[in-house]
Every structure is written in C-alpha cells, then in structure tokens.
Amino acid sequence: MTAQAVPQARDAARTQPGTGRGVTPADWWVIGLLLAFFTLNFADKAAIGLAAPDLERDLGLTASQYGLMSSAFFWLFAAGAVVLTLGFRRIGWRWSAAGLMLAWAASMVPLTVPTTVTVVIASRMVLGFFEGPAHALCQSVVADRFPAEQRAFAGAVVNAGSSVGPLVATPVLTWVLVTWTWHTAFAVLTAVGAVWVVVWLLVTRRDPGMRAGASAARRAEEEPDPHADIDVPLTSLMRTGSFWGLALLSFAGYLISSLKVSWMPSFLHDGMGYSRETVGLLATLPYGLAILVLLGAGLVSGRMLRAGHSARAARGLLTTGCLCFAGLAMIAFTQVPPGGLQLTLVVAAFSINSVAFSVAFAGAADFLPRRHRPGFFGCIIAAYSVAGIAAPWLLGVIVDRADTAAQGYAHGFLVVGITICVFAVAGGLLLDPARSRAALLAETARRRTAAAEAAR
C-alpha cells in the first residue's frame, strides 16, 4: 500500500453514499417502527430489573443467584446473534423482524403465571437467543436505506428505543407491579408485542426493500453497494482493527446497558435507600437523558463528516469520549455519599451506553460490503454479549460478599467504571474505517491477482 493510499481511502469512505436514491418518507416510517421494535426489546429487559425484589422474595434468591438468573438472558444471546443474522437476507427484513417479535412474545408467556426458577431461566435464555440478532437487523436496515452522512442519526433514532423502552416501561410497569404482580407486567409486554407484529406486517407489505428474493435484488440494483469493490470473506473483516475496536467499544457500552437494566433499580432501592415508588420515577432519568445524548451524538457525528473530519474521529473517537465520560462518572459516584450529587453522577454514568451501538456501528457501515453486514454485526454482538453474561452475576457476587449492600455496589461499580474507560480508549484507537477499507481493498487486489495467476 502506498503512502497516499490511506488518505485517499479515508476521503473515499467519508464521501461514499449509502444509497443510490434519496431518503423517502417510507424510510422514516420503517425507522419509526424499528424504534418501536427496539423500545419493546428493552422494555422486557427493564421488566426483569423492576421485578427483582419480587423475584427474590417469591423464589427465595440471593443477590448472586438473582444476578446469575439475569445473566441467563445472555447465555444464548451470542448464538442467536450469529446464527439468525445469517438467514436474514434470505428471509427478508419484513419476516425477520416479525418472527423475532413473535418469538419474544412467546418466550414471555411462561412468566405471566406463577412459576419456578428453572422456568424463568429457560424463558430468559430463549428470549436472549431471539433478541441477540435484533440490533444487527436494525443496523443493517439503516445501512441499506440511509447515506453515510445520515446513517448515524437514523441509527441513533432506532437505538433511542433502548432508552425509550425503559423510560416508558419503568413507570408503567412499576405501577403494574405494585397494583397487581410481576406476572401481569410480562402479560402486558406479550400483548403489546403481538400488536406490533400486526402493524409492522401491514405497513411493510408493499415495501420491496423489506423482502427477500427478486424484489431485494431489484432494490440492490437501484441502490449500488458503495463497498462492492471489496471482495473478501467475512473472516478477513474480522481480522481488521476496526472489528476489534468496535467490539471493545460495544463491550464497554454493554457493561453499562446490562447493569442498568438488571441492577440499577435495586441499587437505587438497596444501595441508595429510595422507596420502590420513587425508584420507579428515578430509574427513568438515565433513559430520558440517554435519548438526548444518543440523538445529539448522531447529529454531531454526521456534522463532523460533513465538515471534513475523518470517519475515525466522527465514529470512533467521538464514541470513546462519550464512554470515558460515563466511566469516570461511574467511578466518581462510588466515592461520594448518597444524595443529590451521587444521583446526578449515577444518571450521567448510565445515560451514555447507547452511543456505542449507533455512532460506532455507523463507522462499521463505512467500510462493510452489504452482503457481510448482518454476519459482521452478528459477530460484534456475540463479542459484546459476554459483558451481559459476566457483569450482572459478578456484581451480585460482590454485593453478597460485602458487609453491606451499599459497600458491595460501590466496589462493583468502581471496577466497572475503570473497565469502561480502558476498553473505550483501546476501542477508539483501533476503530479506523478508512484504514480498514484501504486494507481490505489491498487484500481484494491480492486475491484477484492470485486468482488470475492460478487461472493461467
């Protein structure tokens, strides 16, 4: 590769369009439905955290046992992310999304009645398997329908569901839990999921971009793949620095996500002393702020690209800065006494996680060939799901072994905050879409030269 290759590739990646046509109202309708899709995706995660005291009481669980049960959601998460994403293109986005939502609703049905620990764990495992590919599906649809300069914002709108879901669900489900039982909360989520499937199938019934087969092929002809000149196997993409950078950034973000949904309500109740009703309100604050942070970061990323900044700065370094701020806030709230300052720091720490799943993921789409997007995103999700497996359980173990719950939370979140900062810095240094594109083009040239020589 020549000295001029990397700058040239950087400029090319910065200006590549994502589609060959303008963005239409139909695209934004799809984005709106995917926002609702992601909202429900995270509403069911919030439900298990809100139900934690009831689960511990009804099933006789310790903190570490509850943490283990929460982590069960992620035991098959990676498998679902990899296996199911590979079939999305053949099935089409329309039926893939509908199938996932139906599977989510079905997996929650056993929790709508009195049950056992084994059933809860099995239900969470099945739910995790079918929720694993959700983010890959949404980001693949966004990458297909939006140009590079709008992709981060569109992805941020969809990912806002990770905050809208708990923001809406937390007060509603808290009321349901207090008024009835935690079983009723899952019954409500099951019913809403079924309604979403009906609306989705009606709205997307005439959209060729949502289907597989000939319609999808015609859409591909209308919207040329900006990275069709890269011809390498998926394994080559997984060897790039950007793959590992995105994996580390996502891992840092998911440490926050998994602990926010599984332990934040309990921390506010047991660690900071707030009542269940007050927790139902306070727990919405990080989600509300997260929507503003997410949309703001998406807009800033797009403006940085239009202003001439590299994709590395607009995607990787911007994400690193946001995650490091969250990690430092988490470290800080473990060092101050309960009160207004600590609550402010808690809200700040738990408000920034989703930036890694919109802005950073948009960086991956800056060099990924269309055919590899689902598989690539699926592998990234499989990598960061490890955070969801380990973090809830380990925090529960630390809380159980501490003299008091407050002390256990302080020790656990201190370790997590430091880990977030380390992974964020390493990930930001590795994520460089332009350099990855240049390296993949060079490998494509080598492969074609070798193939031509072998054919002689």
What is the averaged pLDDT score?
81
| Uncertain stretches of 5 or more adjacent residues | 1-21, 213-222
What profile does the largest beta sheet have? none
- What is the string of helix and strand elements? HHHHHHHHHHHHHHHHHHHHHHHH
State the helicity in percent bands. Answer: over 70%
- Number of strand elements: 0
Strand content: under 5%
Radius of gyration: 22 Å
The CA-CA distance between the termini, in Å, is 25 Å
Shape: globular
Helices, strands, pairings?
Blueprint: H1 5-15, H2 25-50, H3 52-59, H4 63-71, H5 77-85, H6 88-91, H7 93-108, H8 117-131, H9 134-145, H10 148-159, H11 161-179, H12 182-203, H13 214-222, H14 234-237, H15 241-262, H16 264-271, H17 276-282, H18 284-306, H19 311-333, H20 340-349, H21 359-364, H22 373-401, H23 405-430, H24 433-455
Give a brief outline of the structure:
This protein is mostly helical. Helices cover 77% and strands 0% of the residues. Helix 2 (25-50) crosses helix 11, helix 15 packs antiparallel against helix 23 and helix 22 (373-401) packs antiparallel against helix 23.
Can you tell me about this structure?
It is a single chain. This protein has 456 residues and is mostly helical. Helix content is 77%, strand content 0%. It has 24 helices and no strands. The chain has helices spanning 5-15, 25-50, 52-59, 63-71, 77-85, 88-91, 93-108, 117-131, 134-145, 148-159, 161-179, 182-203, 214-222, 234-237, 241-262, 264-271, 276-282, 284-306, 311-333, 340-349, 359-364, 373-401, 405-430, 433-455. The two termini are 25 Å apart.
